[in-house]
Write a structure and sequence with these properties.
The chain has about 700 residues and is an alpha/beta fold. The protein folds into four domains: about 5-165, Immunoglobulin-like (Sandwich), CATH 2.60.40; about 175-445, Glycoside hydrolase 38, N terminal domain (7-stranded beta/alpha barrel, Alpha-Beta Barrel), CATH 3.20.110.10; about 475-540; about 545-640, Immunoglobulin-like (Sandwich). About 35% of the residues lie in helices and about 25% in strands. The strands form seven sheets. Strands 3, 4, 5, 8 and 9 form a five-stranded antiparallel beta sheet that branches. Strands 21-28-27-23-25 form a five-stranded mixed beta sheet, with no helix packed on it. It has a four-stranded mixed beta sheet with strand order 1-2-6-7. The longest helix has 28 residues, at about 645-670. The chain is elongated.
Amino acid sequence: MTTRRSATAITSVVVALIIAVLATPVSAQTGGSLELVAQSAWVDDGGIYDIQVRVAGAGPDSSVVLRVYPPWPERDDFLRKELPEDLDPLLELDPVMLGDVQGTSNEVLGFEVAVAGPNIPIEEEDEANPISVLRSNGGSAVYPVEVSLYDADGELSDWFLTSLIELPRGQRNAPLRTAIVLEATMPPMATPTGNAPLDEEATAQLAIIVDAIAQHPDADVALSISPEALVGLESINTEETVRILDQLRTNIGPSQLLPNPYSEVEEQAWIDAGLEDELVQLYQAGSAATSSVLGIEPESSAMLLDRTVDEDGLQALITRSEDNSFGVQGVIVRPAQLAPLNSELFPQALTTRFVIPTPNGRTVPALVANGGLSNHFTNPGGAAYNANRMLADLTLLSLQNAEVRQAVVVNPPADWVPDATFLNVMLTGIERIPAIRGASPFDALSDTAFTPSQGLGTLGSPLERDLRAQRPAQDLLSFRTEFSQAQAAIESWSTVIAADQASLRSLQQLLRVSTDHRLTDDQRNEYIDAIYNVIDTQKDASITTPESETITLTGRISEVPIVVENNLGVDAAVLLVLDSEKLAFPNGQTIEIVLKPGPNRIDIPIEALASGDSPIRIQVFSPDRSVTLGSAEVLVRTFAFSGVGLVIGVVAIIVLLLWWLQHLRSTRDTVKPLPDTPSSVGSTADTEEPIGV
């Protein structure tokens, strides 16, 4: 039968659909359905094209017919799945009657077609194993292949179009560099109260992507995933998350990891809020986190441009990346991010790079993720069917300008759910089809010709395309102050607990996750509040200062011992600030010290300026003095002279000594000596006798 579909067939399908909606399953009324199970990725001149289809719900009197038509003349015809009504097939196989082969109502049928160019002799047909031959011109081509299911009355029940790709071995044309960029999206895994439960659905989808990368290393599949998700998977540490991360560590390289901020953010909102440097810091934190989890840093030369970034934002990103050694050299954009092209100058899909101008006069090389290719992810028909259409489309793109170095980026739509069959079929074809070659995003960007501004085949400057960015849903002007203050609080506290990297990572993670654009304002504030709560809790319990006490000293210069206890369990850097009215501090009024966990004795050198009671006020700060950790007061009682008092005392003693010596000398001069002989007793005139009486 050569008629592809009749008015009667179309009518029967419409009637069957109406009945199906109203009453019974479609398959029971339409006479069955067809589904592509597998087919050859490509054949060369002289090769065998093999295709397998599943028939479901058809009776034994139904039949299946395969037809091969002349090569697609235009890619647009291929995308529309349209063949001219009067087009005759190059080859039509004899109908396969299901009653002859079908054991069940869900049967897989196989068909084989030998492809023979003009220089390939056609062998005698083997009656025991007959095979049909498609006579080709021996060149590169994509042939439409129609598989149709007819019921017992010869009416069309179901059909689909796939492709037979013929490519001669040893072709000299450069293959189409094909960069597959798969995005894995997971909800925020760190919450203000700890890790969220593992999202099993998102994890299962990530596992499909990771397994596909592992099974097809030559396809160079690139992965875009938030570093926060990688950190969360590592911290949850289930059997499946361990397996996923091990697969990534083993099977992915730096050029296959696209750079991303730590969390999913609307980048233009950050730029509009004057947070360009903070945005680059999020990129740097993301690179560090990825390196910590996987052991490799993403290659930052090529970036998948966020949908919200405009020309001003792109300029800011490029400038900041150069200032911070970030190194962005080109971007990949989606079709919706670009202004439309002049269809007269560019009637075909672009497979060469162009440039995006920025306000300061610079241009940034770019590739567009082909929108038509993205549609193959979600078209009806099943995973194997869609993947083979993707391969046929890539081959057509490769053949349309075979003499030019071409590249495409294949990026699924945001609502696509990863499918293992689709990925396996597509990536197998990319690894095997000579007209296609897997490439990293940067290789696709750097090893591709520029598009001339006046159209393909002309000479001149590269084509410039303006960005048409999506407006950010998030306004960060109000959040900017809260973010900056929380960031400053973490930085101040980090000067104290630099040794406690686990606590610092937890605080920084809370701050970075608070930037996720999927959070509401209230949820974002919960993260910020959690940061202050953690810091306050640690700060309040961190240091125990001595109770008020009195210390007695007898020397003018001495040391006052105090004990400060560190309760953090790790080294804590602090600053002691001393103040006293009657005491001086020879080594200064500030002491920088690292407190070991537990009690720490600190000897403070002092000099007494006067005797008596002198209080020392001690305050404990973070090294940058922004955080107060504690305070204490110690009373010092000294029995010591000041310099002036000592001089007066010495003079007074000298004067006293001189007076005492002088008094002693004068006393010796005025006291008479006592009689020392007996004759002297009674020798007065009253006792003398007259002589001669």
